Amino acid sequence: MSIKLNHTIVDAKDKEVSALFLTEMLGLPAPLLLGPFAVVRVGETSLDYLDAEGNITPQHYAFLVSEVEFDQIFERIRERRLTYWADPHREELNHINGWDDGRGLYFDDPNGHLLEVITRPYGSGGTAVSKPHPLVASAVDPG
């Protein structure tokens, strides 16, 4: 048997609002309410939103998308006038990155979770591309 991630639980202030936000932004089917969860299917995996009490610890969720899907998601981000960044440290405001000769960006969900959409997996371009991913570049040149 090959091991696959089946699901993960995502804390939310309002599970239905949060799950709906993700499905709308990524162009996915509406969430399924299942017991205490609002379930969002992402390929073979699901993000199971659960209402949480108290403070929510922000997490990071990255989604590999096609170039066409990236364009559609980026348009939804702009239509909603959401803040987005080219980097996970939220320093390059209103920019997208070109790492691995693909495109990527980061934006927050209603709970402060950092969502990322990328068109190329980290390091997939190696060091031969015009814009190697910073993690790959720093591994080659740790200076």
Outline:
The chain is of the alpha/beta class. The protein folds into two domains: 51 residues, Roll (2,3-Dihydroxybiphenyl 1,2-Dioxygenase, domain 1); 86 residues, Roll (2,3-Dihydroxybiphenyl 1,2-Dioxygenase, domain 1), CATH 3.10.180. The protein contains three helices and eight strands, in the order E-H-E-E-E-E-H-E-E-E-H.
Number of strands: 8
Task: Give the helix proportion (percent range).
Answer: 10-25%
Q: If you average the pLDDT, what whole number results?
A: 93
Rg is: 16 Å
Q: Kindly give the count of domains.
A: 2
Q: Per the principal axes of the C-alpha atoms, what is the gross shape?
A: globular
CATH fold descriptor of the largest domain: 2,3-Dihydroxybiphenyl 1,2-Dioxygenase, domain 1
Can you tell me the residue ranges where pLDDT is under 50 for at least 5 consecutive residues? none
Strand order of the largest sheet: 1-4-3-2
Characteristics:
alpha/beta; 2,3-Dihydroxybiphenyl 1,2-Dioxygenase, domain 1; 4-stranded mixed beta sheet; 8 strands
